[in-house]
Amino acid sequence: QVQLVESGGGSVQAGGSLRLSCLASGRTSSSYAIGWFRQAPGKEREFVAVISWSGDNTDYADSVKGRFTVSRDNFKNTVYLEMNSLKPEDTAVYYCAQSMRWHVQPGPRASEYLHWGQGTQVTVST
Description:
126 residues, mainly beta, 7-stranded mixed sheet, 4-stranded antiparallel sheet
């Protein structure tokens, strides 16, 4: 059974940084792409970034390009989201999710991901 657990959220001032972690359990978790999504109050869940199973390919939402970096350490079964130059509009609950398909990098649609973590809150103040 696959479980994803996010950590690293917190409260920071605008311009600050945070690093989120997503620990994946499951025998073949390193064979699946992992995506990051976020949901702000009153808004729909939106795509943030995705990293392929090997770590060779990444993609980002336009709103975070140049500020966020996704990486993974398959030996530790962990995917990271490094967030720099944070803005108040980055405030949201951040979720990691595992791709539905083995060795296939999904796109930005939540329906392409099967397993989800419980989320971690990120709050950016002015």
